[in-house]
Amino acid sequence: MEFLPKHIEALVFCSPDPLGIDEIQRCLTEMFGSEIPLDNIEKALVELQDKYSSEDFSFALEHLGAGYQFLTKPAYQTSISILLKQQSHKRLSTAQMETLSIIAYKQPVTKSEVEQIRGVSCDYSIQKLLEKELVNIKGKAESLGRPILYGTSGKFMDYFGINHLKDLPQPKDFFPEENKIGEEKE
């Protein structure tokens, strides 16, 4: 099965979104006409991660969100930040970021609940977040009028490079530790 890492590498490389193990398995099964065991795929992915952790490469194979994706290493952040600055028209506005953070922490949440927290109308921000596929409609609330419930999408996880909502920063992460100079040792 020494051919397996090369095929997986090609699949992950050409995929515009993170590629899950199940999807990799389906592609390989169709290609080879027999099911490739998940253990073999996982071993090949580890082998590829080891290969791309070398300093010879400016990118690495990372597991995030919905699967595996090639991402540039932090050492090349300056080069990439210049490119991203030039493409800044695609970034989220402050209003969109505030709206998205409320949805991420309070989901599922209605538009009126988001507006109550922000204190302003969120129609435009929610529409843009839906267009960018960072937010999904999760259903309808049982309250009067059955308002739409919003929540984050898989693309949200990929955009912020997290695997689970529990990976979001918690309020305690935003406050520095208090100065402990002068306290007695126990």
What does the model show?
With 186 residues, the chain is of the alpha+beta class. The protein folds into 2 domains: 4-76, Orthogonal Bundle (Arc Repressor Mutant, subunit A), CATH 1.10.10; 89-174, Arc Repressor Mutant, subunit A, CATH 1.10.10.10. 46% of the residues lie in helices and 13% in strands. It has 8 helices and 5 strands; from the N terminus they run H-H-H-E-E-H-H-E-H-H-E-E-H. A hairpin with a 7-residue loop joins strand 4 (135-140) and strand 5. Helix 5 (94-106) crosses helix 6 (111-118). The model has no long low-confidence stretch (mean pLDDT 87).
How would you concisely characterize the structure shown here?
The protein has eight helices and five strands; from the N terminus they run αααββααβααββα. With 186 residues, it is of the alpha+beta class.
Helical stretch tally: 8
Low-confidence stretches: none
CATH domain topology of the largest domain: Arc Repressor Mutant, subunit A
Strand order within the widest sheet? 3-5-4
Return Rg in Å: 21 Å
The end-to-end distance, rounded to whole angstroms, is 59 Å
| Proportion of beta-strand residues | 5-15%
CATH architecture of the largest domain: Orthogonal Bundle
* Mean pLDDT across residues: 87
List the helices and strands in order: HHHEEHHEHHEEH
Largest sheet: 3 strands, antiparallel
Number of domains: 2
What is the number of strand segments?
5
Residue share in helix: 40-55%
Structural class: alpha+beta
Annotated CATH homologous superfamily of the largest domain: Winged helix-like DNA-binding domain superfamily/Winged helix DNA-binding domain
The global form is: globular
Provide the CATH top-level class of the largest domain: Mainly Alpha
